[in-house]
């Protein structure tokens, strides 16, 4: 009885269904094998890339500094901390540039990889705008932002003084707020009337290189004041000028030396 029951429970499978199942299983294995191949290929490429970046063929062979006229190229290299033998892809150009830009004269540093083995550092330096006298015969050279570029006993010629401001103490320092308007005035005068002014005080009195002073009072309406200054100076003999007051640019007032009257 049991044998008959077991015999009846068996169900014959259609050969087409069996073939379909086998085909499905084969497709599943093919897909798994394909995915495995992709993963293994990715791992192989990653390993190959890692090995390639570590090969001596892609090491730093030379570091070149351009544009450093007033900055010691050796100091630029020390700040960069990039040396021969470093991996080219391992150089952190952003961090290196930031360290170089901490140098007093450096306004901007751009670092570029030149494959296969050269690092190029291009330095853009700041321009002197003014001088500030310090103790013991020293002079600070400052830029348009009031940053101290250099402290020297031999200041560059032709650069005007800023007077009446707190003297800086070290390179890289910035002048205080009291110098801000004087620097604004000097920038404008350098652009419009280069070489005309010998010094500017914190009160915005400008001493002319040819003699006499121009009183600005403030940097308000500065363009109009400079136009008034330019117009008057073009019409008078500056050897007799004592004071030109352009605080009211529409009505400039001129005072002459008594010896010229």
3D structure, described in words:
34% of the residues lie in helices and 23% in strands. The chain has 261 residues and is of the alpha/beta class. The strands form three sheets. The protein has a six-stranded mixed beta sheet with strand order 7-8-9-10-11-12, with helices on one face. Helix 5 links the parallel strand 7 and strand 8. Helix 3 crosses helix 4. The termini are far apart. The mean pLDDT is 87.
Question: Helix and strand layout, with pairings?
Answer:
Blueprint: H1 2-9, H2 15-54, E1 62-66, H3 73-80, H4 93-100, E2 106-114, E3 118-125, E4 130-133, E5 139-142, E6 148-152, E7 161-163, H5 180-192, E8 197-201, E9 205-208, E10 213-215, H6 222-233, E11 241-245, E12 253-256
Parallel strand pairs: 1-3, 7-8, 10-11
Antiparallel strand pairs: 2-3, 4-5, 5-6, 8-9, 9-10, 11-12
């Amino acid at each position: 009885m049991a044998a008959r029951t077991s015999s009846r429970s068996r169900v014959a499978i259609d050969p087409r269904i069996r073939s379909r199942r086998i085909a499905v299983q084969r497709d599943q294995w093919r897909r798994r094998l394909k995915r495995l191949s992709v993963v293994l290929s990715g791992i192989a490429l990653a390993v190959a890339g890692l090995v390639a970046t570590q090969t001596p063929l892609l090491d730093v062979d030379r570091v070149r500094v351009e544009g450093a006229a007033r900055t010691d190229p050796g100091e630029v290299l020390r700040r960069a901390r990039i040396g021969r033998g470093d991996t080219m892809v391992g150089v952190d150009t952003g961090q290196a540039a930031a360290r170089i830009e901490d140098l007093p004269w450096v306004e901007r540093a751009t670092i570029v990889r030149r494959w296969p083995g050269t690092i190029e550092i291009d330095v853009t330096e700041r321009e002197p705008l003014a001088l500030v006298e310090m103790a013991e015969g020293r002079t600070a050279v400052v830029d348009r932002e009031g940053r101290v570029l250099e402290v020297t006993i031999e200041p560059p010629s032709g650069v005007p003084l800023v007077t009446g401001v707190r003297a800086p103490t070290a390179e890289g320092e910035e002048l205080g707020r009291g110098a801000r308007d004087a620097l604004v005035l000097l920038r404008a005068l350098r652009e419009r009337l280069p070489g005309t002014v010998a010094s500017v005080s914190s009160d915005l009195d400008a001493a002319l290189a040819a003699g006499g002073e121009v009183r600005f009072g403030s940097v308000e309406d500065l363009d109009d004041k400079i136009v008034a200054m330019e117009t008057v100076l073009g019409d008078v003999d500056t050897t007799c000028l004592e004071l030109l007051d352009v605080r009211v640019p529409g009505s400039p007032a001129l005072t002459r030396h008594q010896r010229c009257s």
